[in-house]
Design goal:
This protein has two domains: about 50 residues, no CATH class; about 60 residues, no CATH class. Helix content is about 50%, strand content about 10%. It has about 120 residues and is mainly α. It has a three-stranded antiparallel beta sheet.
Length: about 120
């Protein structure tokens, strides 16, 4: 069974009765997709709840970036920060899987790398 032949996840969410007609393979594929979406959203919500500075920095307050945002700024995969968290003082773990990057710390690190 190919992923493209599976009923879209949003169709099952809108009409849960459709789940009764799914094959085992289709149900497993949708379950995996739904789990991946849950994890991504859980991490984002956790980051937003743990640090209000991420969404609305006050004057003089530290601004925090998600790993994806920081990765785009320097052209690295988000896991690059997680693997080097112990050596990069501007990377902070907020909770189990939630890691954020200080925007000003990253800017200082980029400037130091160029010199």
């Amino acid at each position: 069974m190919t992923i493209s032949s599976v009923c879209p996840l949003d169709e099952v969410a809108e009409a849960p009765a459709k789940a009764a007609s799914l094959s085992l393979d289709a149900a497993l594929i949708l379950l995996a997709r739904g789990g991946a979406v849950c994890e991504v959203l859980r991490a984002r919500v956790g980051a937003l709840q743990a640090s209000p500075a991420i969404t609305a920095p006050a004057n003089g307050a530290e601004e925090w970036l998600t790993l994806e945002e920081a990765g785009r700024l320097i052209g690295r995969h988000p896991r690059w920060f997680t693997r080097r968290r112990g050596r990069l003082p501007f990377v902070k773990r907020l909770s189990g899987r939630t890691v954020v990057v200080s925007k000003s710390g990253l800017a200082r690190w980029i400037a130091a790398q160029k010199s």
